[in-house]
Amino acid sequence: MRELIDGVRAWSDAGVGAGRAVVVRTFGSAPRPEGANLVVADDGRVLGSVSGGCVEGAAAEEVARARRDGMARVIRYGISDAEAWDVGLACGGTIDVLIEPALRPEILAAAASGAGQAVAILLPPDAPPELLAPHRTGDGAPPGPALVVDPTGTLLAGGLGDAAADAAVARVAAAALAEGRSTVAIVAVGGEQRQVFVEAFEPRPRLVVVGAVQVAIPLVAIARTLGYATVVVDGRAAFLTRERFPDADRLELAWPDDAADAIGLGPDDALAVLTHDPKFDEPAIVLGLARGCRYVGAVGSRRTQAARRARLESAGVPPSDLDRVAGPIGLDLGGRSPEETALSIMAEVVAERHGGSGRPLHALATEARGTAVGREAAVPGAGTPGGVP
Fold it and tell me: Which residue of 23, 73, 139, 382 has the smallest Cβ count within 10 Å?
């Protein structure tokens, strides 16, 4: 939902009502994860996606239905549902989608917050259980209550009307925020086992760019598109302007030492050092390492990197710390333009954040197939009925 906020606000300002569909559970190779949203306006416009295009039309019709009758319901689309081919979900996955007749204020506030919040929503009583079983659209129920939880598990607002259930859901919500993924929990509410969808809006990641150079302009724009908060640091006022960086959340006119304190540089930040100037680059790298930034990358050729490393080692920076520096910065995409370079940098930042390898997916798939074939070959009779060769 976070990436849809601007569009939703524009609709609201224009007096256009809307409902939503949100993926609450996935099975198999579902195209979108839990928490993926499709927002549907009363005039038919849509924002977002719950399936990458497979079931958007069917889900949009269900949202329109919910707008008419005021009921929330959970609908299952997938290979276990005979209607899957009718709605186009032939990719082998199964998804449960919560349909709501209106956009909850709690959801909009949590999505807009960069501090991290989870919203837990009581699902309708007839929501399908986790077992893979066909599910048809039921009558639904009025939207259930919700509660809002912060990363520490503190209840910020709302409740399910049951203190024990609230406490149980708060624990699940805190864990969901820590993992950065939405989930469904089953809790006892008023003595009845009920399903609760926990929609997690993890703390907004931040990219700190040192150096208001040309590459930094598309880098900030790409980072914003990916949901990152962005800070650009430079000591040169002529380069650090709002005209050059309209997408930046903050421009900090300062030397790295002063900027680090001003912006609170810390472990949750990705730091991209782009100035090509040792007076800026090296203090920024040292600060990023000392403050435990999750990613520290710096521009420069291999020769530049080697010379910089030698200077920093002589200055007392441990080699093990310097091993953490991604330099030359970015993944090898073969591009040369500022925009292509920015893409390679942001690709490496995203890979670090999610533990990705940065390798082509088709190569990984080929390796996985080879590994599977090797395992079968190692087992006599594997792949034959009854294990008979």
Answer: 139
In this predicted structure, the answer to whether residue 323 has a pLDDT above a threshold of 90 is yes
pLDDT tens by residue, 350-373: 999 988 988 888 888 788 777 655
> What's the N-to-C CA distance of the chain in angstroms?
53
Domain boundaries, the chain: 16-201, 206-354
Residue partners of 38: CB distance under 8 A and separation at least 6: 20, 21, 22, 46, 47, 48, 49, 50, 56, 59, 60, 63
User: Given CA atoms 103, 105, 106, 110 in this order, what sign does their dihedral have?
Assistant: positive
Helix (H) or strand (E) holding 251: strand 250-253
Sheet holding 117-122: strands in order across? Answer: 155-158, 146-149, 117-122, 192-201, 183-189
Assigned CATH for 206-354: 3.40.50.720
Higher pLDDT, 139 or 294: 294
Segments of 88-154 assigned E as strands: 94-100, 117-122, 146-149
